UniProtKB/TrEMBL annotation:
Domain SLBB: 137-212, 221-308
Predominant location: membrane
Positions of the Polysaccharide export protein N-terminal domain: 47-131
Top-level division of the source organism's lineage: Bacteria
Compartment(s) where it occurs, according to its Swiss-Prot or TrEMBL record: Cell outer membrane
Family label: Belongs to the BexD/CtrA/VexA family.
The keyword Nucleotide-binding belongs to this UniProt entry's keyword annotation: no
Alphabetized InterPro entries for the sequence: Poly_export (IPR049712), Poly_export_N (IPR003715), SLBB_dom (IPR054765), Wza_C (IPR040716)
Domain Outer-membrane lipoprotein Wza C-terminal: 311-332
Phylogenetic lineage: Bacteria, Pseudomonadati, Pseudomonadota, Gammaproteobacteria, Lysobacterales
Membrane topology: Multi-pass membrane protein
Organism: Rhodanobacter terrae
Keywords, comma-separated and alphabetical: Cell outer membrane, Ion transport, Lipoprotein, Membrane, Palmitate, Polysaccharide transport, Porin, Signal, Sugar transport, Transmembrane, Transmembrane beta strand, Transport
Protein name as it appears in the record: Polysaccharide biosynthesis/export family protein
Amino acid sequence: MSGDGLVRGTPTDSSQIQLVTITPQLLAGDHAATLSAAVPQALLSYKPEPYRVGPGDTLYITVWDHPELTAPAGSQQQTAANGRMVRSDGTLFYPYLGSVKVAGMTLEQVRQEISAKIAKYVERPQVDVGVVGYNSQHVTLQGAFMKTDPQPITTAPLTLGQALGTATVNADQANMSDLILSRDGQDYHLDLASLNNGQGIAQDIYLKPGDRLLLPYNDTQEVYVMGEVTRPMAVTFRSVADLSLTQVLGRAGGLNPITSSGKEVYVIRGAKNLENTPAKVFQLDARSPSAFALGDEFRVKPGDVVFVGAAGITRWNRFVSQLLPAATLVTSAATANYSATH
């Protein structure tokens, strides 16, 4: 093996494999990288602007001491009945003034506009403007939510945490490791488990008019456990952050106490794209209790193959010739099965 971690030799193992030992130093680096990349700075730095009126909104305009202007339908009517609908051309009708262009204005700008125009008919008018119907700006939701109705942007800023709380995540079906927030033509991929880690990060992300939230389903989020384990299987999980190597082995019934080699616990990552990028193979020596502590900190990812070698397999070339084709076959078959059923 060369100093860069790549195995040199036959075509089976040259430049296709990068062997990495799972150590405390590796886990510390991965943890720091995960935290720093959890939320793009562009999302954290966005601050909502004052609400701007748009077509479809309904405004309630109060002119104090002039009920005939404030509530022409009668004060006994509901507030919405006396509201002023902003038409598709961005205007609304107001007594004495006719059509007034309000689209794109803040509420304060609308108040000033109405006050200046109505002053020709009302001495020193005191005008107030509020929104009683928000219909012009929304955040859309798709995927594994219990409620996918569009959520309006209002004068009160809407955070990601509030939107998720209203939509209610379908925790059993959602791929919580890949919430996609689409904004201005760019997709941001977020891990919900990282956002809800007790630091309240989701409450610090403000949503913008036109944002789209897509929460994929978890039907393709699997880790494949092979080799000398009690029950070889595909393990489904919801979030990258909530499933460790130790948990994966536990769900598979643990290492076979008779046939397995505790020294040869491998996690193969990237076997589907060998032509372009070397696959990484992480190795854990699971013969001591401390090793399982490391395994508990190592987070698996969708498409990973966990392979436990048999006792007596010591030559690296034999490992590569047996393991890598199997890993590629498993992930390729899973992809083909998903494509055929969708």
